[in-house]
Amino acid sequence: MNRRKEPCRNFQRGSCQYGDRCKFLHVAPQQSKPSTFGFGAQSALHLAQNTQQQKPNPFGFGVSGNSQLKGASNFGARNQSSSRPFENKWTRSSSIASTTSTSPQQNDSLPQAAIHKCTDPELCKRQIVEDFKNEAPLWKLTCYGHCKNGPCDIIGDISFEELRAAAYEDARRGLSLQSIVERERNLLNSKLIEFDNLLRNPYVLRNPNSSGTSLFAVTNSNASLIGAQTNAPPSFSSFSQLGVATNVGSTIRTSVPGTPPSAVFNQPSSFQSNGQTSGGFAMKFGTSGIGSQLPTQPSGSSLGPNSSHFNNSVRAAGSQHFSFPAVSPQFSGTSNASPNILDGPQVAPTTAHQASVMEKQNVSPDDSIWLKEEWAIGEIPVEAPPERFC
Amino acid sequence: MANLSGLNTGVANPNPNKSFEVLPAPSDSVSSLSFSPKANYLVATSWDNQVRCWEILPGSSQPKASISHDFPVLCSTWKDDGTTVFSGGCDKLVKMWPLMSGGQPTQVAAHDAPIKEMAWIQQMNLLVTGSWDKTLRYWDTRQAQPVHTQQLPERCYALTVLYPLMVVGTADRHLIIYNLQSPQTEFKRITSPLKYQTRCLAAFPDQQGFLVGSIEGRVGVHHLDDSQQSKNFTFKCHREGNEIYSVNSLNFHPVHHTFATAGSDGAFNFWDKDSKQRLKAMARCPYPIPCSTFNNDGSIFAYALSIHFGILNRLLHLLLLLRFAMTGARVLKIIIQLQQRRISIFIAHWKVRLKGSLV
To answer: Any CB–CB contact under 8 A between B252 and chain A?
Structure first.
């Protein structure tokens, strides 16, 4: 509670010993951030300026006040430190969280590189393994990205509210509790399978994967997506439930199983898992340095119009441009698997079977590369053809 | 202490913090809470399709009014003059309810999918709504058509507005930052610094950045300005042993600029991002806290407990929860945590409560 309106001279210099108790105004010595982005010019704000703690205290006031705040007994200590509000404790291990792990340090070490090139697959794999072991959240229906600030490795988020809204919706339509639970269980399982696949073949990273297989994929994408329509009804029972859930609010409330738009909509998540595994194979022959974004873009955009054709009835066409560029790295990589996955689920609708089927299908991308008449740059396999082709 | 309505008596005390309970409780989970910017009126929206308003007086609460939607209501916000409440949810529309004048709700906005988040932008006199149809729409309440529709890469999961900063969190970890002075263009689009689904957002009061909370029990502090990127960090919270709960709500204290996090583990904590400390950890309630909020001057912190959230992977619970959710026979409480002092001098408040003179 600063009674005087004058700024505190000591504070300006960075060392006011009264801290919060000081009777002068603690205004930040340096005024606001560059207007390059026009946010919050300090002068424009009418906030309590006392707590503008942008400048770390150069005098580094006593780390003694850093006691953990786990209980009332520490409040005394906290009071001490409160009079020196500028201790910027850069050592993460103090105070904030209860446990330590390597992740906080990693946050430090990975500078805010917007694009993390994942140049070291081993490191990333270890990161993923560790994440799944130590940091697996209780809510499983989530996307995941192994590097912070990097794009997602697993897409297909479902939030609490979406799941719940879908359940309520189903209940309202008269679906029994049993079937709702069944649907949710399937969702959960398929998600868990995706995570497992990522764990086993983490190094998919869209670029090597897609460059190796994208050209092949594009030509088939038309066929595959059209195929989706016809294959949808018997097979996508569990996935299309997801479609209903995530398309909550879709104006098309036809019967639940396999409406084509929702089937296509689902495919990113199911494809992703397949793509992950096939990507593992692609690694073997696609990595000859063609890791640039360039090959992926054309395939991504060519895929866009295809899918948008199906999704038009559900979403405004405009929205496609946004979802696809964001998803295209994965999408193009996974689309090669699309003909395969459509054949797979027809065999059996249960997810357990699907998992095994997906495994089986993964072999075919391998073969397809050998069956091509011509190889484009980036597709030329590095290793010798397997026996069956010789 | 207010009488705690009949729960399974075998369960631990639902109110270990001796917070004051607001009655009558909604019959289904609370989805959002918001205080009026002018007075101590609390509005709660819940999955039982109702929007309820209470007046919060020191030591008691008085139910004032309620309206209903046809579908669960997911979000609410007050207009800046404290007279009108907007609420929206699974019925894909927003109702404007001039409750102070006793008026009837009218529809002012619509989407193609449930509306997850909304906020009133005082400086523009517009309501912005984010929905699972991957759009953000700006509404002038007098017109039926949105003033502007903004496409999002994915479904909107979280929103925070502090003029001119607006941050939208979507599925697949996108975070899109807008400068509301030119709302048609994204100021920046980044991927969340957290590795899992984004759950909640809160903008810094000085608009230098924002907090992002995810389902993995972690909160990220992110600054917008590139020169301040070194100050970004993330910290873990709401974890218990190996169990990692989601952070459901982030709220800044309007005066002290410390913030509170509330999670599915039933705990809520107060933190100071500048000194990187946890200021106070409250006792864990046995139920998840889906939402929380401060009142306009920060003297009251309201949080809701509700059965349901976040434990869905345990299928047994799933069964139970769903059944209860559908029959609506569930116990939920809105609990008010009164804070009489600034958070840094919490000890005084705590002692007062020990002596039993809770107000």
So the answer is: no
By C-alpha distance, the chain B residue nearest A113 is B229
pLDDT at A388: 59
Q: Which amino acid, residue A213? A: T
- The answer to whether residue B15 scores a pLDDT higher than 90 is no
Burial class (CB in 10 A: 0-12, 13-18, 19+), B4: middle
B60 touches chain A (CB under 8 A): no
Buried b (16+ CB within 10 A) or exposed e, A123-141: ebbebbeebbeebbbbbbb
Give chain B positions within 8 Å (CB) of A22.
none
pLDDT at A255: 40
What lies within 8 Å, CB to CB, of B344 at 6+ separation is A20, A78, A79, A82, B256, B258, B272, B279
More reliable by pLDDT, B337 or A217: B337
Spatial neighbors of B146 by CB under 8 A, at least 6 apart, are B109, B137, B138, B139
What pLDDT does residue A211 have?
A: 39
Lowest mean pLDDT of A285-299, A371-385, B111-125, B242-256, name the range.
Answer: A285-299
Q: Classify the C-alpha dihedral A171-A173-A177-A180 as positive or negative.
A: negative
Q: Are B136 and B168 in contact (CB under 8 A)?
A: yes
- Give chain A's largest Cα–Cα span: 89
- What secondary structure, in 3-state letters, does A36-100 show? HHCCCCHHHCCCCHHHCCCCCCCCCCCHHHCCCCCCHHHHHHHHHHHCCCCCCCCCCCCCCCCCC
Residue B186 predicted with pLDDT over 80: yes
Q: How much is the pLDDT for A59?
A: 41
CB < 8 Å to A249, chain B: 90, 92, 111-114, 131-133
In 3D space, the residue among A17, A97, A19, A58 whose CA is nearest the CA of residue B276 turns out to be A97
- Of B271, B343, B262, which Cα lies nearest the Cα of B304? B262
Question: Which amino acid does the sequence have at A25?
Answer: L
Instruction: Tell me the CB-side half-sphere exposure of residue B319, using CA atoms within 13 A.
Output: 4
* Residue A246 C-alpha, separation from nearest chain B C-alpha, in angstroms: 8
N-to-C CA span, chain B: 10
Q: What mean pLDDT value characterizes chain B? A: 80
Alpha carbon distances (Å) from A286 to A283, A292, A379, A381, B269: 5, 12, 6, 7, 49
Long-range CB contact pairs, A173-180, < 8 A, 24+? A177/B319, A177/B322, A177/B323, A177/B326, A180/B322
Instruction: Say how many C-beta atoms besides its own lie within 10 A of residue A63's C-beta.
Output: 12
The phi, psi pair for B230, rounded to 5°, reads: -70, -15
- Give the Å distances, CA to CA, from B234 to B154, B192, B256: 24, 11, 21
Instruction: Name chain A contacts of B176, Cβ cutoff 8 Å.
Output: none
Reply yes or no on whether the pLDDT at B219 is more than 50.
Answer: yes
Among residues B299, B59, B264, B149, the alpha carbon closest in space to that of A137 is found at B264
Residue B309: both structure tokens together? 């959230």
Query: Does B16 contact A at CB distance below 8 Å?
Result: no
- Interatomic CA distance for residues B268 and A249, integer angstroms: 33
Of the candidates B330, B292, B290, which has an alpha carbon nearest to the alpha carbon of residue B311? B290
Distances (CA, A) of B275 to A25, A54, A379, B262, B306: 19, 10, 53, 20, 32
**Dist CA A41 CA A38 (whole Å):** 7
Look at residue B119 and tell me whether its pLDDT is greater than 90. Answer: yes
Low-confidence ranges of chain A (pLDDT < 70): 1-4, 29-119, 202-390
The region of weakest confidence among A299-313, B2-16, B182-196 is A299-313
**A150: amino acid identity, one letter:** G
